[in-house]
Amino acid sequence: YRFLRNVVMHEHGHGLGFAHVCPSNGTKLMEPFYSGSYDGAQQDDIRAVQRQYGDPYEPNNSAATAVFLGTLGTSSGLGLGAMPTTVAGDTIVYPAVSNAGLLSIDANAEVDYWSFDTTANILVTIAITPLGSSYVDNNQDGSGSDGCSGASGGTTNALAISNLVLAVVNSAGTGGLALSDVSPEGTPETLASFLLSGDSNYKLKVSESNAPTESQLYKFSITVLGATTVTASDAASSNVITLSWSNIPGATQYQVYRGTTNDFAAATQIATPVTNSHNDSSLPASTTFFYWVKATQVNGGFTSNQFVGGP
Q1: Is the whole model's pTM more than 0.85, yes or no?
Q2: Nearest partner of 273 among 304, 236, 242, judged by Cα
Q3: Residue 46, class by beta-carbon neighbours within 10 Å (0-12 exposed, 13-18 middle, 19+ buried)?
């Protein structure tokens, strides 16, 4: 019965340290009187719990304690909920809660780390999106029949509490690969068409830049745009090999490596083209060569060199 659930959860709210909140208009679990217009904790209640206790995936405040999301594939539109091993924590599935989620930056200096693997060289778009709405909330002042009649003036814009920052760092969390910190409070941060090399462990770092004193709910998504490839052909030439590879949006340059064995450690960098093709000329005939291509992307002042492809 909703009546029983809401009353029990309301009283547990007091046990967790929360007072009544006004106005009593059927939008928050911790209002002074029962309402059946919602089922369980609502946006303000969830924000209060996470401000005091953190989100359900604490402690993930360091690279060493990052929550593993799973292994990305190469199918289009792959997002948080579609990963083989997943944290289905970006939204509250049931009962649904408007403008709320299970993830948060709960206060100043809070940092969340998430990790994932890749199985191929892929392009992805990563985004973090703040959750929340603007609503009235006041302390109960004891006046009137509901104890709220004189309470006024308090409005919270829960969408724009924190200026969120999105970063991709290496597996140790010590080196930055990409940064997005360009959008104001209340708007998403996005790394679009970011190149990731296969079989690498990556960390997402979510933080804030404006010293918030309240919790900011958020969600994030990782969308795989597709795998990247490199092709090589000697065509009709006996001493020229033509290379081409997937165009990487935002690449400042490419690095082409050549070897005589299928071992990148023994390969030599031979060119740094700025377009996604290269002619490797003056080669000896009847010789097999192996090629690798990396791309350089700069995001938020951080430089990332990742494999586009290889043998």
Answers
A1: yes
A2: 242
A3: buried
